[in-house]
Every structure is written in C-alpha cells, then in structure tokens.
Design goal:
seven-stranded mixed beta sheet; 12 helices; Dehydroquinate synthase-like, alpha domain; binds nicotinamide-adenine-dinucleotide; Rossmann fold; 361 residues; binds glycine; alpha/beta; 2 domains
C-alpha cells in the first residue's frame, strides 16, 4: 500500500492506494467520529463490493446503514440526492455519523455534496471504485450534482477525511469505463507532467489490459499531481483550473447530448482535442503535437472527435462554464505538451472554428 497526504492544514487527509484495501477496516476506523457509518453506493457497485466493505466494519462493532442509488450520470441530480437525505433522516444519522461513498465519480460527487450539507456538514470518506474516481474525483473535495442546463452546477468544496483506493475493484470495471479514466490520467501529463505523458505513451497498452503494476503506478502519479495542485489552490482561485483541461468543451458535449450519453472521460478526451486544436490555431502548439495527442487518446480507446452539435450550440452550452468571469469565458489551453495555461479574451470565431474542426463529419 502507498499513502499520499493531501496537505490542507486541519483538513489534511491520507489517500491510501493498494490491492484489497476494502478488506481492511483498520484503515477506516481511525477516521470515524462515532461507531456509526452511512454507506452510499449504487445498484451496480453495491452487489459487487458493499458486503465486503461492511463485513469488516461490522466485525469491529460499527453500525452500518446504507442507501443504494440508481446507476448513471443521468441520476446525478437533486431527486437522487434527496434519497441520501431520506435515508440519513430515516436512520437517525447524526452530525457525527460518517458518510462513506462507495462507487465511481457519480456516487462520490453526490455523496460528498450530501455530506457537505446534511446538518451543515458530516464526516465523509471516499472509497472510489472506478479508475476515474481513483485518479481524480475522490481527491480534492469537489462535490456536485448536475442541472439540465449545466454540468456540476450545484455543489460545494468539501474535503473527505480519507480516500481508500482499492485497485482490486478495477478488475470488474468495463473496458469503456477504464478508458474514460485514462482521459483524466493523460490530462495530468498534458498540463504539468511531461515525463508522465511520455511514460503513458509507452505503457498505455498495459494500462488498457488492466496490468495492476502499471495501474498502481499511474494512479499514484496522478494522485501525486492532483495533491500538489489542490494543496496550492484548494478552491480553484488559480492553478487548479488547469485540471479542467478539455472539460469546458467536454461538459458541453455531456450536457448537449443529455447526461449519460457520453461518459465524462470521453467528453474530456474529445474536449481536450478541441483545446489542443484551439491552442494550435493560436500558435501555441505544433500540428505534430496535436497529432501525437490524438494518437495517445485513440490508443487509450477514447474519441478524438466531438458530436456535431454545431459551434453555436457548443458556445451556448459553454456559457455556463464555471470559469466564466464577468461574462467572459476562460479556456484551459496548452503552450506545448506538458504545459497547461488558462487564457481569456479569445476570439469566439477562432474557438468556433477549432470546435468545428474537431467534430464528427
Ligand atoms: P460513474 O460513477 O458513473 O461510474 C462508471 C460506471 O462504472 C457506473 O456504471 C458505475 O456503476 C460502474 N462502476 C463503478 N465501479 C465499478 C466497478 N469497480 N466495477 C464495475 N462497475 C463499476 O463514472 P466515473 O467515471 O467514475 O465518474 C464520472 C463522474 O465524476 C462525473 O459525474 C464527473 O463529473 C465526476 N468527476 C468529478 C471530479 C471531482 O473532482 N469531483 C473529477 C472528475 C470527474
Ligand atoms: N477534476 C478537476 C478538479 O478537481 O479540480
């Protein structure tokens, strides 16, 4: 097991990464305030891992209450969120009861928002079970639900007390979901870690094949990158925005098609190609770099073209981006591979042309 620390003063917490960690309640016990936990999971992950997690805790005399949510991005909304509150109230959960999120980013984001707001904040633990959640969404305290008009529009920054990433859970993850996680992994290389990007070019096949050594290394390196950024800029006043590379365009794809049609990581991959193409048109990135990036995404099993929604529709959806400031959209772009930048004041005509160039014909 490897442990990283998210350094946020009184809100610091460990990320444990390893094989079979679900069977180790001793990793969880020190982070509980009382001997009661509420576990939030979904109808896919629950049958696979809920009993494993609960059995160990029960042996330690921890009282457990659970809620099993419907599966999918389409359910990341207020009615499903309310199912968590229903359970917490019905089961007389207190402010000191610990909420545990067992699942991918959808469960983690929703459970985190529930924990942030139930009785104005209860302790919270992330047990991520997708590659995407283990490298990104479980770390850093962003929690949210979607609104039909925009992705992750309603939420809070609320840090967990522990992240427990059990790599063994990835064995049951469908290949398409594994690829979606690779999009966020590639992102770290692109915005701030060129050596990692080059390592990914060499090891992408091993990662797609589920090689546990390669996965463990990529998860740790990704978390290391994320931890450094979050410690420097917890609430995204500056550098944390770099972790949104491809997301402005990707969120437009997700919302434009209806949540759940494309996976989040797929939107990020096609959106990153749009950001790269825009960077090229601004003279910041070479054509060879854009091609090189496209090759890596394709080898990762990810789309390099977005759906043909039309540039005006993309722009309309992107107007809801959280990086809009004083009515102006700021973009995460590349000044070379491995070097992300945030830039505003970009001519919408150039943005539109870059989008069109990266859409399916
Ligand atoms: P997800 O949570 O929908 O999980 C993907 C699918 O895999 C689901 O069907 C899920 O039930 C299933 N699944 C989960 N674990 C499994 C396992 N071990 N075996 C088999 N099936 C399993 O999607 P995701 O990709 O994990 O997360 C995407 C979400 O994360 C998006 O809503 C996105 O906005 C959010 N996100 C948040 C942050 C953040 O910082 N908070 C960062 C990135 C993404
Ligand atoms: N996933 C982007 C962030 O956490 O900031």
């Amino acid at each position: 097991m490897h442990t990283l620390n998210v350094s946020l003063g009184a809100r610091s917490y460990p990320i444990h990464i390893g094989h079979g960690l679900l069977d180790s309640p001793s990793l969880i016990l020190p982070h509980l305030r009382t001997r009661k936990v509420a576990v939030v999971t979904n109808e896919v992950v629950g049958p696979l891992y809920l009993e494993r997690l609960c059995a160990g805790l029960r042996r330690e005399d921890v009282e457990i209450v659970t809620v099993v949510l419907p599966d999918g991005e389409a359910y990341k909304e207020w009615r499903t969120l309310n199912l968590i509150f229903d359970m917490l109230l019905r089961e007389h959960c207190e402010r000191a009861t610990t909420l545990i999120a067992l699942g991918g980013g959808v469960v983690g984001d929703m459970a985190g928002f529930a924990a942030a707001s139930y009785q104005r904040g209860m302790p919270f633990i992330q047990v991520p079970t997708t590659l995407l959640a283990q490298v990104d969404s479980s770390v850093g305290g962003k929690t949210a639900i979607n609104h039909p008009l925009g992705k992750n529009m309603i939420g809070a920054f609320y840090q967990p007390r522990l992240v427990l990433a059990d790599i063994a859970t990835l064995a049951t993850l469908p290949p398409r979901e594994l690829s979606a996680g690779l999009a966020e992994i590639i992102k770290y290389g692109l915005v701030r870690d060129m050596a990692f990007f080059e390592w990914l070019e060499k090891n992408i096949d091993a990662l797609r094949a589920g090689n546990t050594g390669a996965l463990a290394w990529a998860i740790e390196r990704s978390c290391r990158n994320k931890v450094e950024v979050v410690a420097a800029d917890e609430t995204e006043q500056g550098a944390r925005a770099l972790l949104n590379l491809g997301h402005t365009f990707g969120h437009a794809i997700e919302a434009g098609l209806g949540f759940g049609e494309w996976l989040h990581g797929e939107g990020v991959a096609a959106g990153t190609m749009m950001a790269a193409e825009l960077s090229r048109r601004l003279g910041w990135l070479g054509a060879d770099d854009v091609k090189r990036l496209g090759r890596l995404f394709e080898r990762a099993g990810l789309p390099v073209h977005g759906p043909a929604l039309g540039a005006p529709r993309y722009m309309e959806l992107m107007a809801h981006d959280k990086k809009v400031e004083a009515g102006q959209l700021r973009y995460v772009l590349l000044r070379g591979l491995g070097h992300g930048v945030v830039a505003g004041g970009i001519d919408p005509a150039i943005v539109g042309a870059a989008i069109e160039a990266c859409c399916q014909q």
